[in-house]
Design brief:
28% of the residues lie in helices and 27% in strands. A hairpin with a 5-residue loop joins strand 5 and strand 6. The chain is an alpha+beta fold and 335 residues long.
Length: 335
């Protein structure tokens, strides 16, 4: 007997009377179904662009740094707050073009059944095509169901969908790999004011995140002898890097200190409730003020971490120098 297909009403004034469904074939479960992605992307893109000011909506590669920063901040609000807990379970995330223009993309969650449990990865779609998948060191990053469930239980303190929150916390931070509990490699990143650690194992073409730990579940945490400069990147090809533009040692020290202090997670529910109920127009209107409270000025610039085209972007207070073409190795512990 063929299993029934679950469906959720899509919430958008630009696509009415439409249900988002999952697709199943070849042992995979895909949500949303692939043939629905163009319609969903069109509706979400219209919502995003129609709420922007005319100046932001017409931002292109010739735009100045400040306008690119405003578009980035507006898109971040659109994905993190206005689309953070959709009843139709759709996930919306930022995507960055090589010219540092921020777009919004629909996320398709792919689930594969294995003897050890379900494995999940995420594909980005915009307009009529898939965007390059996010990789690290040429490998696709996979999350087990256990890793996602423990993230929701231990590291998330908001009213947002935990998967959407995980995608934001994990992909858009500088990737940091530390020694965990007697020499186990783990991704360590900021989450809800504290830290989350995801131990992982490596296969030939994949990195599999196994679970999620917070300070109370970690008995030891230490850096490698040399900080591992790893990079999330779009597409499977290993990236070349330019000059470093981020103090990785200082970043590691700050997270290790949170582990030592057993810093508790912050309760973000009230703040996110307020932000989620603001209109899209209000979010766009407040964009310049939000940037200024973050220390940004018209002289600031948006840059890719170490010049690598991927989901990790940083703000600098001066225009960065040209990135040299000399390649540098990407650090990953050996399997």
């Amino acid at each position: 007997m063929k299993p029934s297909v679950r469906a959720w009403p899509f919430e958008s004034k630009y696509l009415r009377d439409f249900a988002v469904v999952e697709e199943r074939h070849n042992g995979l479960r895909l949500f949303p179904a692939t043939d629905q992605l163009p319609l969903l992307s069109q509706a979400i893109t219209r919502e995003f662009e129609y709420g922007l000011t005319s100046r932001l909506a017409h931002t292109d590669s010739r735009a100045d740094n400040w306008r690119k920063l405003c578009l980035w901040n507006a898109a971040d609000s659109f994905c993190q707050y206005l689309n953070s807990a959709r009843p139709d379970h759709l996930h919306v995330q930022p995507y960055y073009t090589p010219e540092l223009l921020t777009q919004v993309a629909i996320v398709q969650q792919v689930t594969r059944s294995t003897p050890q449990g379900n494995h999940h990865w995420f594909r980005y779609f915009r307009d009529r095509a898939f965007l390059p998948d996010i990789h690290l060191g040429g490998k696709r990053v996979i999350f087990t169901t256990h890793a996602i469930d423990r993230y929701a239980q231990r590291a998330d303190e908001s009213n947002r969908d935990p998967v959407n929150r995980l995608l934001t916390d994990f992909w858009h931070k500088v990737p940091l790999i530390l020694h965990l509990n007697a020499n186990t490699p783990a991704f360590v990143f900021h989450a809800s004011g504290t830290l989350a650690a995801m131990p992982f194992q490596m296969a030939s073409e994949e990195i599999i995140c196994l679970t999620t730990l917070t300070p109370n579940e970690i008995s030891s945490l230490a850096p490698y002898d040399q900080p591992l400069r790893s990079h999330f990147h779009y597409g499977p090809q290993r990236p070349t890097t330019g000059s470093t533009n981020f103090d990785l040692t200082k970043h590691a020290d700050g997270l290790i200190q949170k582990w030592r202090d057993k810093t508790p997670r912050e309760d973000l529910r009230k703040a996110y409730d307020i932000l989620s109920h603001l209109s899209w127009t209000k979010h766009v209107q407040f964009t310049p003020d939000r940037l200024r409270t973050q220390g940004c000025t018209p002289e600031s610039a948006l840059v890719f971490y170490d010049g690598v085209h991927g989901p990790t972007v940083l703000t600098t207070h001066t225009t960065p120098p040209p990135v040299p073409a000399k390649p540098a190795p990407v650090g990953l512990p050996r399997s």
